[in-house]
Write a structure and sequence with these properties.
Blueprint: E1 4-6, H1 21-35, H2 41-50, H3 52-59, H4 65-87, H5 95-110, H6 121-136, H7 141-161, H8 167-176, H9 180-189, H10 197-200, H11 203-230, H12 239-247, H13 251-279, H14 282-304, H15 306-309, E2 320-322
Parallel strand pairs: 1-2
Helix pairs in contact: 1-3, 1-4, 3-4, 3-14, 4-6, 5-6, 5-7, 6-7, 7-8, 7-9, 9-11, 11-13, 11-14, 12-13, 13-14
Length: 357
Amino acid sequence: MKAFRIPPIYCPLPLARHPALDKVEAGCIDYMRKWRLFWTDAQLQRLIATRCGEVVAMLYPFGDKTLLQVAADYMLWAFAYDDEYCDEGPASRDPAALIAGSSRMQRAMESAEVLFDPEDRYGMALRDLRLRVAEHGRPMHAERFVMMQRSYFMAEMWKAVAPKPMLNDYAIKRLYGGGGMSFTVFCYIVPQLDISEEELFSRPVIALTEMADTFTTWDNDIISYPKERARSQDKQHNLISVLCREYRCSDEESVVIAVRMRDRVQGLFSRLRDHLMQHGSPALQRYADYLGYYAKGSLDWHRSNPRYLYTNGIAGELCMVGAEPADAPLDDSHDPLPISAIAWWWQYDPARRSVLS
């Protein structure tokens, strides 16, 4: 099958890598083996090739090495869970099994003082992560992590029983599904930012966080689509498939629409991030800065990772080409996207109003 071409993607944000990359990479492979987060040897090799240490070093380039290891292990957990429960393993074809299994995993994380089910390798691995965040992070970091994981599972359950969403429902599912909002929690956990509840949960900051998450999930859908198509996976909740349904267009046309949508969010994100970095508290300024590294690191990692470049996720036949850096956006409009689930972000556009008033 001919490799699918992704258009150039515009992302004028900073890029950096945490110096502990190599050590963290080895650590998350040990974590995967310890908890047996794979169901075949082939899946084990695909997860090793994913290079979770590399992606977290790009997502969270500053901060504590111990907490960076927790983030890397969680990234590995999420890829393994996504593959085994949501995409290709037995539970991916059985919504009841996915819902029951995910609910048990969440409870294992919530009731960490007592072993909920020692035979549940995914639940035990998730409990381990929560305990390590509580041990090494700041007060409330572990509880925020648990809260966002609950939203992650909720979205995956919804996807399992409603696999062909239209665009507005897709925007909600994808915001939380795949671990998107859970990963942004580590933007302040890894550097141990003491950001207040008042600031973190203010509407402009929630909007900025949701946009950073949306970059990673939309980029994942755009760049993973060729692999899913080549491996004949029925991914009807991938952004490209959703846009094909929404606008009755080809996948080649859909991927251009997706990149244009991303460009418009990129413009708003940059304007709001710059504003918060100028007018927020020192902790908020750093958090807004780190969200930029998070978005850029995710995109650059997706562009070059074997999981997405090759049909088998390791090497050999290319399924995707393109996605190189663009010099300018395809869409630089300041108007909100016609997606009601996320249109509220534009209420906090600094080009329209004072977002901290």
